Amino acid sequence: MKKTILIFLLFSSITIAQNSIVQQFSNAFADVAEKANPAVVTVLTDKIVKMQQFNPNNPFQFNHPFSPNNGQQERHLNALGSGVIVDALNGYILTNNHVVDDVDEIQVKLIDKRVFDAELVGSDPKSDLAILKIKADNLNSIKLGDSDKLRVGEWVMAVGSPFSASLSHTVTTGIVSALGRSNILGNSRNYENFIQTDAAINPGNSGGALLNMDGDLIGINTAIATGGYEKANRGVGFAIPSNMASKIMNDLIQKGYVVRAWLGVFIQELDDATARALNLNIRDGALISDVIEDSPAKKSGIKEGDLIIYFDGEKVKNPSNLKNLVSSTAPGTKSKITLIREGKELTITVLLEEMDNDDPLVKNTDSSSGFKQFGLDVRELTNQYRNKYGISEIDDGLVIISVNPNSDASNKGVKTGDIIKRVGSKKVNNVKDFNRLIDQTKINDTILLLIKKPNGNSRFITLKL
Questions:
Q1: Smallest Cα–Cα separation from 303: which of 356, 354, 351, 340?
Q2: Which has more confidence, 285 or 393?
Q3: Which of 141, 168, 206, 368 is catalytic?
Q4: Most C-beta atoms within 10 A of its C-beta, which of 68, 76, 92, 451?
């Protein structure tokens, strides 16, 4: 009997302890939501579109839309998003660029139902961030957290206005599913370093808050994986890290544009076939396929074929990672780049410069898989070939004058007029060296070539014989 009572008391204690833990967990979520809600806003936008008014007495109105007899009517296109007050004193609000891009009027609605006209302080399409400003008293703000401290599996909370203003301040929870996601929005010139979460994010949540369990802002909700900004949630959402947002916000407020450093290289992923062709035992890093003339990279001695593996002591995982590391570094900084060149590890110091408005920091080029046959006819560069294919005097290498239309080289986009600059990691300037290097660098019937296109883009491709 005593044993039964003891067992009963033990299970009762466990149940009470479990209920206590659940209650603490529940209270923690409620505390974060209560703290965050007053600082999350609904962003209402209006765009005026002028449309031709139909005139049944004028049969030519569609051919002549600006005829004096043709009237025009205005149509208002309304959209909705979210934002986060990050500076209560000055009324600054972080949101997404795509929420406020190309609109005629922006209003912000607070949780207390006050509505204010908002000024667009600045925007950065490349990161999809924008800063709004409102003039209002008694605002609440959210503290920016350190997104670099996030761990996969950590609990997070999303707050925003999904679908309609009537659903403002909707709170959802989930975990950090992954970190450092890139190439999500389909534009290689964007700067992407997304936090992936399964907290429900839907249309209207864009620009809203992603919070850690301390109630700090660690991300700006931006996109979902079902096709961009305006699809239904399927449990895969993405947020811009707070550390990236903080730098961009400060630049937009202080300068009106984002200051980014410039390295001046064309880079691509290091896939398995390319790594084997280069005799590398790693798969991380950013492979340099071209170096822009008179760029910081060129001045520092970085060469095509180099594999950058560390930037200022931080491991480079892929091209997008390198792009973000460089862009977040102040221009004028002397940065140390660790790279692998022809199997040897080197460290080079590069003096970063400020990037012009629209100049690329780096350009990604697609890597290619192996081919089944070669299918190329190459020649040494002469004035005749330079004139025929519009090849610059500063370019060297071999020109492709014929491509077998039935070859995989043709299917992969290799064309006449393209230049072969390297075989493996070695430069090539004549056909004799070309044939010799092919024999030397052939690994499992795979050859690595660096090809430069007429538009200036270069990329490594692997050809399987």
A1: 340
A2: 285
A3: 206
A4: 451
- Determine the Cα–Cα distance for residues 36 and 57; give it in Å rounded to an integer: 58
Query: What are 161's two structure tokens?
Result: 């206005």
CA distance 338 to 324: 16
Angle at 219 between CA 216 and CA 220, to 5 degrees: 120
Task: Report the C-alpha gap between 33 and 39 in whole angstroms.
Answer: 10
Per the structure, the count of domains in the chain is: 4
> What average pLDDT does range 408-412 have in this prediction?
72
Domain of 331, CATH number, reads 2.30.42.10
Q: Which among 295, 185, 178, 220 has a CA at the least distance from the CA of 39?
A: 220
Asked if 204 and 242 sit in the same domain, the reply is yes
Which of 215, 230, 254 is a domain's end point?
A: 254
Q: Quick one: 396 and 361 in the same domain?
A: no
pLDDT tens profile 109-133? 999 999 999 999 989 988 999 999 9
Catalytically annotated residue among 98, 198, 216, 327: 98
Structure tokens at 399: 């020109």
DSSP codes joined into one string, 60-127: TTTT-TT-TT--EEEEEEEEEEEEEEEETTTTEEEE-HHHHTT-SEEEEE-TTS-EEE-EEEEEETTT
CA nearest neighbour of 408 among 378, 375, 434 = 375
Tokens of 120: 């667009």
21 contact partners, CB below 8 Å, separation of at least 6 = none
Mean pLDDT of 306-330: 90
List CB contacts of 113: < 8 A, sequence separation 6 or more.
none
**What's the whole-model pTM score?**
0.70
Distance between CA 205 and CA 163 in Å, rounded? 8
Rounded to an integer, the average pLDDT of 256-283 is 85
φ/ψ of residue 194, rounded to 5: -70, 145
Phi first, then psi: give them for residue 277, nearest 5 degrees: -65, -30
**What does the pLDDT look like over 226-238, one tens digit per residue?**
555 555 566 788 9
Active site residue 98: yes
Residue pair 93/41 in contact (Cβ under 8 Å)? The answer is yes
Query: Which of these three, 110, 133, 156, is where a domain ends?
Result: 133
Distances in whole angstroms, Cα of residue 366 to Cα of each of 350, 378, 419, 459: 26, 23, 17, 7
- In this structure, the answer to whether residues 343 and 380 fall within a common structural domain is no
Determine which one of 123, 124, 127, 128 is catalytic: 128
350 and 284 within one domain: yes
Instruction: Specify whether the CB–CB gap between 80 and 100 falls below 8 A.
Output: no
Pairing of strands 265-268, 362-365: parallel
Phi, psi of 112 (to 5 degrees): -85, 15
